[in-house]
Amino acid sequence: MNKAIITVVGKDSVGIIAKVCSYLAENNINILDISQTIVQEFFNMMMIVDMSHIEKPFEQVVNELTEVGQALGVQVKCQREEIFDKMHRI
Q1: In the β-sheet with 30-39, what is the strand arrangement from edge to edge?
Q2: Helix (H) or strand (E) holding 17
Q3: DSSP-assigned letter for residue 56
Q4: What pLDDT, in 10s, does the model give residues 16-29?
Q5: Cα(47)–Cα(9) distance, rounded to whole angstroms?
Q6: What CA–CA distance (Å, rounded) separates 46 from 6?
Q7: Rounded to an integer, what distance in angstroms lies between the CA atom of residue 35 and that of residue 27?
């Protein structure tokens, strides 16, 4: 399985989850696990997704998710699971 970690951070507003999840569904990206919180006015979401069935290069998906985030006024980051794990090891 080709897993990735997607994080979304920024000021809370209507439609953030809907827009990000719509993009994922349109690109055959399955959400395996999702966690989201709102602290005061700030939105934070982390997803583990399966990217085994994407038809675009991974880098294109990363760029498009960044654009989705910019349109929403939030920051969206997407990293391969193994890179995320190596960056966050103690």
Answers
A1: 30-39, 42-50, 3-11, 74-80
A2: helix 16-26
A3: S
A4: 999 999 999 999 99
A5: 12
A6: 6
A7: 21
When computed from its CA atoms, the radius of gyration of the chain, rounded to whole angstroms, is 13
Two structure tokens written together for 34: 């999702």
Using DSSP's 3-state secondary structure scheme, residue 18 falls into helix
Q: What is the pLDDT of residue 66?
A: 97
Going through 1-90 in order, the beta strands assigned E by DSSP cover: 3-11, 30-39, 42-50, 74-80
Measured distance CA(90)–CA(73) in Å, rounded: 32
The residue with tokens 């966050």 is: 88
Does the pLDDT at position 90 exceed 90? no
SS3 state at 30: strand
Cβ contacts of 80 within 8 Å, gap of 6 or more: 2, 3, 4, 5, 58
- pLDDT tens for each residue of 50-82: 999 999 999 999 999 999 999 999 999 999 876
